[in-house]
Amino acid sequence: MDKLFVGSIESDGVKIHYSRTSQDFPSVIMLHGLTDSGLCFSHLAYALFRLYDVVLPDARGHGLSDAPGRGYDVAQFAKDVKALASALGLQKPVVIGHSMGAATAARLAADFPESLSGVVLIDPPWFSEDLCTEERYEISRKTHIENIQNYHRMTMQELDAHIRKEHPNWHEDEYLNWCKSKQQVKEEVIPIIRSIVEGWKETADRIHCPTLLMTGNPNLGAIVSAETSAELAAKHLDWTIINFPNAGHSIQRDSFEDCKNSILDFLKKVY
């Protein structure tokens, strides 16, 4: 991948920045997680760009996109992605999302089923009901505010040392973009925390396109439990559900090769 093409579109009066690998291939949009940016998917995009037109948007409040004081709910994030696809003329792309991005992809599939060919959901924030309490929301809100403030105080060298210590087995290409994204994210994004969790079962029930759900190991930090995965498998017989036992929440980083191969297999079936 010699270079990325970059640009921006407008959604609801907000600039949404994106990077793009190529054109004239089937389209894939990759949606990053909370506090990440589109470029955090660069390593996976590199594995796909010779076969697919990969688009890497920054969600509002992240990366180089605008950070307005409104619109931090999953329904609006889905509309932002729909506006991006429309502006770029993408014909029924497959949307791959991680965490917050997976919640956005799921909502896009539920609200605009005619607009995409399939979704890949990488450990979406689909918590068990007993974990969705006001107390846990408040803890998560305060923790994310504190983390963002700490990220902004840290130098690139400090961020790099921190993430390498936490995840020493990630591919080398992951670290720089992770660090950059932490300096770019804005505190305005905090309200999305509640929105990406609330009502996820109703959203999942409205997904009728080809779906690949990737789950990790909760003991390593993954969100989707074995019980939740089993419930989804029983209800959505047409979904493909793959567990990655050696991965935590960031499956695409922790088990890159297996994750990549599963996505390529799914894309071949869809396209």
Characteristics:
single chain; 271 residues; alpha/beta; Rossmann fold; eight-stranded mixed β-sheet; 8 strands; 16% strand; AB_hydrolase_fold; AB_hydrolase_sf; AB_hydrolase_1; Pimeloyl-ACP methyl ester carboxylesterase
Beta-strand content: 15-25%
Q: How many domains would you count in the coordinates?
A: 1
N-to-C SSE series?
EEEHEHEHEHHHHHEHEHH
Shape: globular
User: What is the number of helical segments per DSSP (H or I, 4+ residues)?
Assistant: 11
Query: What is the helix content?
Result: 40-55%
CATH superfamily: Alpha/Beta hydrolase fold, catalytic domain
The tally of strands reads 8
Given this structure, which CATH class is correct? Answer: Alpha Beta
CATH topology: Rossmann fold
Kindly report how far apart the N and C termini lie. 22 Å
CATH architecture: 3-Layer(aba) Sandwich
Low-confidence stretches: none
Main sheet summary: 8 strands, mixed
For the largest beta sheet, what order do the strands appear in spatially? 1-2-4-3-5-6-7-8
* Mean pLDDT, all residues: 96
Gyration radius, in Å: 17 Å
Computed structural class? alpha/beta
